[in-house]
């Protein structure tokens, strides 16, 4: 029996470190858009270099679009594409499954809500 090629293709993206978290993070942002510095601040543990590489990979996969606003200073932000939003939506059932079956230690601030 062979693995479904669509599942295999999906996990080539989601199986890479940080990709799922980046897609989920952007899906939670206003207009599904965030500045590099905000992403770097909020995704603890990722280096600037790794974040830059991951965003470039997600751009190549047409999941994220880089937005450059010229001016003084130049502002760069990243936005989920329609394809990226669709993938983010498909992660919600996985999140619900994990909430039901996985024992995850929540940050203190999340437990107080």
UniProtKB/TrEMBL annotation:
Pfam family, one: HxlR
Record keywords: DNA-binding, Transcription, Transcription regulation
Domain HTH hxlR-type: 4-106
InterPro entries in the cross-refs: HTH_HxlR (IPR002577), WH-like_DNA-bd_sf (IPR036388), WH_DNA-bd_sf (IPR036390)
Annotated SUPFAM superfamilies: Winged helix' DNA-binding domain (SSF46785)
Highest taxon, organism lineage: Bacteria
Sample GO molecular function, one term: DNA binding
Protein name: DNA-binding HxlR family transcriptional regulator
């Amino acid at each position: 029996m062979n693995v479904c090629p669509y599942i295999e293709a999906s996990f080539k993206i989601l199986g890479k470190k940080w990709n799922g978290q980046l897609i989920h993070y952007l899906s939670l942002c206003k207009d599904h858009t965030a500045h590099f510095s905000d992403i770097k601040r909020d995704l603890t543990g990722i280096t600037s270099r790794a974040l830059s590489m991951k965003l470039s990979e997600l751009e190549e996969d047409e999941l994220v679009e880089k937005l450059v606003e010229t001016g003084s200073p130049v502002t760069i932000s990243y936005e989920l594409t329609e394809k990226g939003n669709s993938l983010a939506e498909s992660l919600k059932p996985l999140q619900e499954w994990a909430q039901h079956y996985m024992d995850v230690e929540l940050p203190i601030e999340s437990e107080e809500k």
